[in-house]
Amino acid sequence: MHERGSYEEDRGASLVPEAGRPSPRGLSRAAGVAFVGALLVCAAGGAEAENDDSFSLSAALEDLPQYFPGYLGNGYFSTLTAPRGTEPTRAYLVAFMDYTQGDMSRPAAIPGWTDSDFRPGEGHGWLNRTPLSAQHFKDYRQTLDLRGATLTTRYRFADRGRETAIEVTSLVSEAEPHLAALQFKMTPDYDGSVQLSFGLMLWAQHAPRFALGEMSGPEMEEAVAANGLSLEARPPASADREAIWYPGYTEIGASEGDPGTLSVWLEGHAAQGLAMSMASAVSLPAGVSAESVTLHRDRYRLALDVTLKVERGRTYVFTKYVAVSRAGWGGGASDDLALARQARERGFARVLADQRAAWDALWQSDVVIEGDAKAQQAVHSELYYLLASSSAGTAWADGACAITPGYVNHVFWDSDSWIFPALLLLHPERARSLVDFRSRTLAAAQERARTRGLTGAMYPWESDPENGSEQTPHFAYVLGESEIHVNADVAIAQWQYYLATQDRDWLRKHGWPVIRDIARFWASRASYDESARHYSIAHLTSVAESNTDISNDTFTNLSAVKALTIAGAAARVVGERADPLWERVARGLYIPMSADGGRHLAFEPGVSARGEDFGGGGPVALLFLPSLDLLMSGPLRRADYDYAVGPVSLTHTGAVSMGIAPRTIAATTVESAGDAAASFASNFTGGTLKPPFNVRTETAGNNTGYFLTGSGGYLQSLLYGFTGLRIREAGLVEAYPPVLPPNWSSLTLRNLTFHGRRLDIRIARDPTGAVRLKRTDH
Fold this sequence. Notes:
The protein is of the alpha+beta class and about 775 residues long. It is about 30% helix and about 25% strand. β15 (about 290-295) and β16 (about 300-310) form a beta hairpin. α11 (about 505-525) packs across α12 and α16 (about 655-670) packs antiparallel against α17 (about 675-680).
């Protein structure tokens, strides 16, 4: 029997990495400064926050049949929640992609680090294999603490006459980006020997795999059916297209462990992709010696198996510390092992305190609603998922579905037009990472334009999050070639970042090259019609994607005009010469209007709208997005609203999360407080907010989880909708009168950052009942 006293929980033994190993710094977040700042804000507001129910989401046993997994992450790696708190769940690293030939790139699942199992003695069942029933799981409660980004699960595990009170707490560290931890507490109502297993699940390659880089739509559908699969959702938590949005594969090379130091470590690489590593260090309960510790290692699992004697009524605490790295972010297995052991030295209490302090610092920027508890809780869940999926000081963008296999983690216009604006005022340092991704992948976009005989840069419809290459599946090839509004969306976000920060050095080095080359793209993509005496953009797929191979999609053309105009303004700021063609195309680009000029058309006359995208009004509804910030006369704005937004049923709006924000924001611009409130309320009635952890899905039925696009839209409704604010060259402008739903007392945007200064924005009713906006500088 090997003594374990040196690795008891919170004892702090000296565990020094081998000589010559570098310190596991990884990608710094200026952790020291952040930690000091977080301690200060903790002292100011921590106690109040602990009692705020809007930061807490819970599941009881009866909720489990409809359990939609939550999400733990820090923008660098992630994992999903599971009901027991101990099951192995798939985990992912940012931009860590499987590049199997013939397929499109997809996120490679890394070993499941949450894998921790228990059984109350020989002849008893293992916790993770026991059915989730009232017979076996008593007094069950799982809570996702949004404020501290921790998941805590409590229950009494009953098996064959033995009951064990269990509490599991897990986190992905915001304070130390390479680190995660899981603490397992158990209190038996019996004496005897128990077994625990602390593992890393080594996932098998998903089967079947499809050559989606080569298959047509019908071929893909036939292949799915031939394998007994379906593209339909299976409630409660199966995504539609799960059959093709499966995870990529991480091939494990070396895997080792040392029972004597309660450690395991491994190295691997994504299929045809980058290298990664992971290590785990376990601490045993204080004052307890294990009967045995053995290493379990096979092709599917690397684990430490522990047997020890327990006494009735005594609480035993085990903690697993996990560190992970990938090529370009961190070191290797030796660094990860050193970091995991150092965390064990400090103990879980310190790791947890650091986590709470880091998240307290993030929550100093907040959106506060008085008078609507449900909306307030949704604010915090939506912002939580955005923060858990983004990072500061990097050039990684957010996929539409966070760091998960949803939309195979590719980067769409969602990153630029939906997620970025929601972060820009609250967390500009994270918003910058999204626009810097476009700068980092500019060369790939330039090459894409060249191969199509165009100038400038043509960004993909689906960008690989690591290298920026086009990764649209073959069956959706037409979108990759012709849904080109993404190029305007990219340029608009770059300019919005400059307007909000006034960072000329950034604009000159990063933003301007992107904006310039996108302007060159649009100038070469538009063609002049001599007979009509205007420029046109032909062979498009509309943002309302049911409409393909059309000319002059209104949203696309207006966005192109905006991008070309921005290029001229950016050139003036950085002292460069704008191409005169940019202004000519911008002034001459055809914008489809009704015969009387009273409202925008969805497309040029003669194009019949197909489908019900965005409620049947097609791209006209999206003309109200604050990123486009289209300037219109009052009558024109009202006519567009009445045509494309007003008639759309709330049932339709709430069932598609991308439709909620444009409708809500549009209603505020025409000062229709009732419509705005009703549209915003459809967030909670349309079925896109999944229990128990408020996971936003793309639609009510397809269960595409962690749809950050919808989260960004929800927050934009508050940041730019009800407030009427827009980011323009003149500053943070009160472009439209503020609107407040009748049941709200106030709406406060707390601790915004604009032009490098901090401010609060508050809208409330004055004594006469009029809604007023007030700014307060910090």
